[in-house]
Write a structure and sequence with these properties.
Layout lengths: L1 E3 L17 E3 L8 H14 L12 H8 L3 H14 L2 E4 L3 E4 L25 E2 L13 H12 L13 H15 L8 E4 L2 H11 L9 E6 L3 H9 L3 E8 L2 E2 L13 E4 L13 H14 L2 E5 L15 H4 L4 E6 L1 H5 L5 E4 L2 H14 L5 H13 L1 H24 L5 E2 L6 E6 L1 H13 L2 E2 L14 E6 L5 H17 L4
Parallel strand pairs: 5-16, 7-8, 7-10, 10-11, 11-12
Antiparallel strand pairs: 1-2, 3-4, 6-13, 8-9, 12-13, 14-15, 15-17
Helix pairs in contact: 1-3, 2-3, 4-12, 5-12, 6-7, 6-11, 13-15
Bound molecules: pyridoxal-5'-phosphate.
């Protein structure tokens, strides 16, 4: 099995990115995995295939790429350090030492050093969370529990299992201060599914248009879903406090719904203060409209706790959406909706009629993760990492302009004028770092622009490198 590693290295940049390796692991080989990894690296150094002073991938990165436990790579590196092939530099990684070559080519090159040395590609796309490279005991236990039950032969409850809905009600109460009960909850496959179900359940008077008011800049998938559903989208500008509620008055009369991310405006990072939340609730009441509240990453706060939800403020006028996409991972496809009973009834009736049922095994697994405390544990671990990165971004970039969204979530935004944001993105791309600009999330033109720094899923060395590249680009740019 040969797995080429994903990072290439480029000389002369600081910090030096890890060298690119392709290592062959043979599961049939009687040697242990650490011995195999060490042998491959040793013979490549000795054969002159890996230049002195190159930095090796972190044990985490290499273990993920090889599909082995991190301890395997750590042991291999330790062995090579002890033998004098590698230097271990604290906080910086493992480097190849200058060793006089044995003068003979390796019989069978087992590591390919990729040439030419192309710049790496690191993406600062927001919203991709850190997930552990190894399954935790609780994760395994959750799926063992699922595997221990017989296959579910019947269509499940279209609202979700009562046990999971009860656990979600408990989670929302303790984590979000949202007081609700299992019969106000519907299990979904994520926020976008929740939005789809919500739009399907809203009754729009014949005299009114099907218009969804949406934040601009905002979540593109929400706009795409609305259009797909045959709704038109009305853009509402945002500022540092999130959606500008007064601007809702420009929406067509009797606009039936507004989609909003009040706890961490996506992507510009604003936190909607209580006054504006009350104004939003008042707008919904006066217009007999629904607020669709997407609370996608409120688990991650590094200073003040998030404000109570809009759903708590005005439960009759809010459809609240939650997801595991930023915590356990987007691949799981699980979320929840909290809505007034009439909406819940319509949603479940439609789902039942069209055969749209939530998967039983996935619900069981999440129930088990919540029961075991694994949910809380994984949120705590990720929060520690994000807090460090949130601070690192603030420290490195605050001198270049206004930062939004600091202290929350998995990304931060540096506000810049749109042209500068574009130049910075172009400069960073040339060094292998893809930096999204707010233009990616903007539907109608706005005066403000910015760059988005999504740091959730990066390895430490990728993060450090990306910040260095950003700082270099910003220093080179004449900022207004
Ligand atoms: C604003 C926002 N809401 C929700 C989600 C998650 O959506 P889903 O639960 O459908 O994966 C994302 C993911 O990127 C997001 O950016």
């Amino acid at each position: 099995m040969t797995r080429p590693l994903s990072l290439d290295f480029e000389e002369g940049r600081r910090p030096m990115l890890p060298i690119s390796l392709s290592i062959t692991i043979d599961r049939a080989d009687p040697r242990t995995l650490p011995v195999q990894v060490a042998d491959r690296i040793r013979s490549a150094i000795d054969g002159g295939q890996l230049p002195p002073d190159s930095r090796l991938p972190s044990s985490r990165t290499l273990s993920v790429d090889l599909g082995v436990a991190r301890a395997v790579v750590e042991q291999a590196y330790e062995q090579l350090v002890a033998e004098g092939w590698l230097d271990s530099r604290r906080g910086s990684g493992h480097y190849i030492r200058r060793v006089p070559l044995a003068g003979r080519p390796t019989a069978e090159p087992s590591i390919a050093h990729t040439t030419p040395r192309t710049p790496p590609r690191i993406s600062l796309r927001p919203g991709i969370p850190w997930t552990p490279s190894r399954a935790s005991d609780a994760w395994r236990r959750a799926w063992r529990d699922v595997g221990g039950s017989p296959p579910p032969g019947h269509y499940p409850d279209s609202a979700g299992t009562l046990e999971l809905r009860t656990r979600i009600a408990d989670l929302l109460r303790r984590a979000r201060g949202l007081h609700t009960t299992a019969d106000s909850i519907v299990i979904t496959t994520g926020s976008i599914h929740g939005l789809d179900l919500a739009l399907g359940a809203l009754t729009v008077p014949e005299t009114a248009e099907r218009v969804l008011a949406l934040e601009n800049p905002g979540y593109r998938s929400a706009a795409a879903l609305a259009a797909h559903r045959g709704w038109s989208v009305h853009d509402v500008p945002v500022d540092r406090d999130g959606l500008i509620v007064e601007q809702l008055h420009s929406a067509p009369p009797r606009t039936p719904a507004v989609y909003v991310t009040p706890s961490h405006q996506y992507p510009t990072g604003g936190f909607m203060p209580i006054g504006r939340r009350r104004a939003l609730a008042e707008w919904a009441r006066r217009n007999e409209a629904m607020i669709i509240e997407d609370d996608y990453d409120s688990e991650f706060r590094y200073g003040a706790a998030p404000l109570p939800t809009v759903a708590e403020l005005t439960p009759d006028r809010t459809i609240y959406l939650g997801t595991v996409s930023k915590t356990l991972g987007a691949g799981l496809r699980l979320g929840w909706m909290v809505a007034p009973r009439i909406i819940v009834d319509r949603v479940t009736a439609t789902r039942h009629a069209i055969g749209d049922h939530p998967s039983i095994p996935i619900q069981h697994a999440l129930t088990s993760l919540l029961r075991d405390g694994e949910w809380d544990r994984s949120v705590r671990v990720a929060r520690r990492l994000y807090r460090t990165r949130d601070r690192a971004v603030a420290t490195a970039l605050s001198r270049f302009g206004e930062l939004r969204g600091v202290g929350a979530g998995l990304h931060t935004v540096l506000m810049l004028d749109p042209a500068t944001a574009r130049d910075i993105a172009t400069a960073c791309a040339a060094s292998g770092v893809d930096v999204p600009t707010l233009a990616h999330s903007t539907r109608s033109p706005t005066a403000e622009g910015g760059i988005v720094i999504g740091y959730g899923s990066l390895a430490d060395d990728e993060f450090d490198y990306a910040i260095d590249v950003l700082v270099d680009a910003l220093e080179a740019e004449p900022l207004s």
